[in-house]
Amino acid sequence: MGEVMQGAGVSPGVGTGPVRTIAGAVPEPPAGSRHGGDAGAEGDSALAALEAVAADLEERGERAAAAGNADGRDVLNAQALMARDPGLADGVRAKIGEGTSAARAVFEAFGVYREMLAGAGEYMAARVTDLDDIRDRAIARLLGLPMPGVPESDEPFVLVARDLAPADTAVLDPAQVVAFVTEEGGPTSHTAILARTMGVPAVVALAGATSLPEGTRVLVDGAAGTVLPDPSEAEVATARAAAAARASALEESTGPGATKDGHAVPLLANVGGPKDVEAALANGAEGVGLYRTEFLFLDRAAPPSDEEQEEAYRKVLEAFPEGRVVVRTLDAGADKPLAFLPAPGEEPNPALGERGLRMMRRHPDVLVSQLAALTRAAAGLSVKLQVMAPMVTGADEAAYFAAACREAGVEHPGVMIEVPAAALRARDLASEVEFFSIGTNDLTQYACAADRQVGGLAHLQDPWQPAVLDLVAPAAGAGVPCGVCGEAAGDPALACVLVGLGVTSLSMSAPSLPLVRAALVRHTLEECRAAAAAARAARTADQAREAARAHLPGLADLGL
């Protein structure tokens, strides 16, 4: 038996099998390598390689769609667009014009984009792997090397890699690949998204994953985020039994969210647009607790038209005629930079700079346009539309936003609580708006002064930190309804603690809803309150987890 390796579980389920690793990386073309003198022919070869890569990606996308993976096709088509980017082609030709060989020119041209994405925040940085994959495939073609990709195997296996490219992930056969394990990646990476789509257990951000010897039998638990090398048959049986019990419990988990003694806790979904509605409904979402409208604005040179906004909002609103939809106004800046909303100056610490409502106050026309589109979208519908602003610090900002909402015809304004100052003075903000929604990811980042993009600070980016729970408490007790829409809401144990702190609704990614619903219905409100008190009394995040679990006996039924 080996030692349990801990990563981040991004797709639940249990898988066991031998390790198979992705074929060796494509080597970097030597710096300073030159072509033979015909820059025109060299450039044509480079662009032909990129076009061949794009065509191959599209063909893989069609295969993925034919197998029922439409999301995979969308991801691969987006990659194909990257390969055909005119700016990239210009960069390649320019370097070849200076005498650089085609392969080296491709490598260097991609490097420019790579640096831009890596430095543009969490969301954009997650696309770096996609860019590297396109680069490597083009270079492999130019140098006549084997194409990077998934290994062949005559038995089901656990696929291990530094990271997985969408081109490989989207066409995998779930009957052949029983689990994914990667050394890099995160919950927003394409690997994680596609793994959940395919229903394959997956663990990412597992340090040392690629050091697992080829053929080593491992047990992967995508819910716990663990990998156990050389498991015994008893350990495999125990894990499978726990997964089966959990699956059975989840099948029985239906209806509105509530504690065991009937305390209602509406369970809502986080969505990025109409395409996410189907999954939300399939998992029993009672509404939307966080509509991230920035996905409508990203990767554009200008804001979407009023008509386009209205259509996108209305599609989500129409899906929940008896529920509510909480829309977050454009959260630009920091890790979501927009070309048409540049920061007013250099920002050494973008997360502390002009973002969210701060940016909208500099560009009120964008805010007014969005609020007007929301009002029109909700006209004549029975759904309750609530609109909230991100990155609010004080009561004056809350008042500004509420006034803007009411002027535009939005009846239910609210604000996000993600800044410690807002949490500590929540009662001041409560007099200005109708509701709060706590963004635990940013609240943790700011409370612990730990940048979300710095992996080495992961131990401080933990919403179980007692200091973070101490900040949730005053917001939840400020006298207005207070939901949570950060990752913390999707943690079944922490969800119970949040309810115990006074949180009135929970919003999360759609696949997390059944497990949270099942955890809540196994505990009374008093048990949740006891768990919350125990967690706040702890000194560390780990101790808070353990202390809370002692008051949440129903978690064992779920194999948690």
UniProtKB/TrEMBL annotation:
<dbReference type="InterPro" id="IPR015813">
    <property type="entry name" value="Pyrv/PenolPyrv_kinase-like_dom"/>
</dbReference>
<feature type="active site" description="Proton donor">
    <location>
        <position position="485"/>
    </location>
</feature>
<dbReference type="InterPro" id="IPR018274">
    <property type="entry name" value="PEP_util_AS"/>
</dbReference>
<keyword id="KW-0963">Cytoplasm</keyword>
<comment type="function">
    <text>General (non sugar-specific) component of the phosphoenolpyruvate-dependent sugar phosphotransferase system (sugar PTS). This major carbohydrate active-transport system catalyzes the phosphorylation of incoming sugar substrates concomitantly with their translocation across the cell membrane. Enzyme I transfers the phosphoryl group from phosphoenolpyruvate (PEP) to the phosphoryl carrier protein (HPr).</text>
</comment>
<dbReference type="InterPro" id="IPR008279">
    <property type="entry name" value="PEP-util_enz_mobile_dom"/>
</dbReference>
<dbReference type="InterPro" id="IPR024692">
    <property type="entry name" value="PTS_EI"/>
</dbReference>
<dbReference type="InterPro" id="IPR036618">
    <property type="entry name" value="PtsI_HPr-bd_sf"/>
</dbReference>
<feature type="region of interest" description="Disordered">
    <location>
        <begin position="22"/>
        <end position="41"/>
    </location>
</feature>
<feature type="domain" description="Phosphotransferase system enzyme I N-terminal">
    <location>
        <begin position="6"/>
        <end position="127"/>
    </location>
</feature>
<dbReference type="GO" id="GO:0008965">
    <property type="term" value="F:phosphoenolpyruvate-protein phosphotransferase activity"/>
</dbReference>
<keyword id="KW-0479">Metal-binding</keyword>
<dbReference type="Pfam" id="PF00391">
    <property type="entry name" value="PEP-utilizers"/>
</dbReference>
<dbReference type="InterPro" id="IPR000121">
    <property type="entry name" value="PEP_util_C"/>
</dbReference>
<dbReference type="GO" id="GO:0005737">
    <property type="term" value="C:cytoplasm"/>
</dbReference>
<feature type="domain" description="PEP-utilising enzyme mobile">
    <location>
        <begin position="155"/>
        <end position="225"/>
    </location>
</feature>
<dbReference type="InterPro" id="IPR006318">
    <property type="entry name" value="PTS_EI-like"/>
</dbReference>
<dbReference type="Pfam" id="PF02896">
    <property type="entry name" value="PEP-utilizers_C"/>
</dbReference>
<comment type="similarity">
    <text>Belongs to the PEP-utilizing enzyme family.</text>
</comment>
<feature type="binding site">
    <location>
        <position position="442"/>
    </location>
    <ligand>
        <name>Mg(2+)</name>
    </ligand>
</feature>
<keyword id="KW-0808">Transferase</keyword>
<feature type="active site" description="Tele-phosphohistidine intermediate">
    <location>
        <position position="190"/>
    </location>
</feature>
<feature type="binding site">
    <location>
        <position position="328"/>
    </location>
    <ligand>
        <name>phosphoenolpyruvate</name>
    </ligand>
</feature>
<dbReference type="GO" id="GO:0046872">
    <property type="term" value="F:metal ion binding"/>
</dbReference>
<keyword id="KW-0762">Sugar transport</keyword>
<feature type="binding site">
    <location>
        <begin position="441"/>
        <end position="442"/>
    </location>
    <ligand>
        <name>phosphoenolpyruvate</name>
    </ligand>
</feature>
<feature type="binding site">
    <location>
        <position position="418"/>
    </location>
    <ligand>
        <name>Mg(2+)</name>
    </ligand>
</feature>
<dbReference type="InterPro" id="IPR050499">
    <property type="entry name" value="PEP-utilizing_PTS_enzyme"/>
</dbReference>
<dbReference type="InterPro" id="IPR008731">
    <property type="entry name" value="PTS_EIN"/>
</dbReference>
<keyword id="KW-0418">Kinase</keyword>
<keyword id="KW-0813">Transport</keyword>
<dbReference type="Pfam" id="PF05524">
    <property type="entry name" value="PEP-utilisers_N"/>
</dbReference>
<dbReference type="GO" id="GO:0016301">
    <property type="term" value="F:kinase activity"/>
</dbReference>
<feature type="domain" description="PEP-utilising enzyme C-terminal">
    <location>
        <begin position="254"/>
        <end position="522"/>
    </location>
</feature>
<dbReference type="InterPro" id="IPR036637">
    <property type="entry name" value="Phosphohistidine_dom_sf"/>
</dbReference>
<feature type="binding site">
    <location>
        <position position="452"/>
    </location>
    <ligand>
        <name>phosphoenolpyruvate</name>
    </ligand>
</feature>
<keyword id="KW-0598">Phosphotransferase system</keyword>
<dbReference type="GO" id="GO:0009401">
    <property type="term" value="P:phosphoenolpyruvate-dependent sugar phosphotransferase system"/>
</dbReference>
<dbReference type="InterPro" id="IPR040442">
    <property type="entry name" value="Pyrv_kinase-like_dom_sf"/>
</dbReference>
<protein>
    <recommendedName>
        <fullName>Phosphoenolpyruvate-protein phosphotransferase</fullName>
        <ecNumber>2.7.3.9</ecNumber>
    </recommendedName>
</protein>
<keyword id="KW-0460">Magnesium</keyword>
<feature type="binding site">
    <location>
        <position position="292"/>
    </location>
    <ligand>
        <name>phosphoenolpyruvate</name>
    </ligand>
</feature>
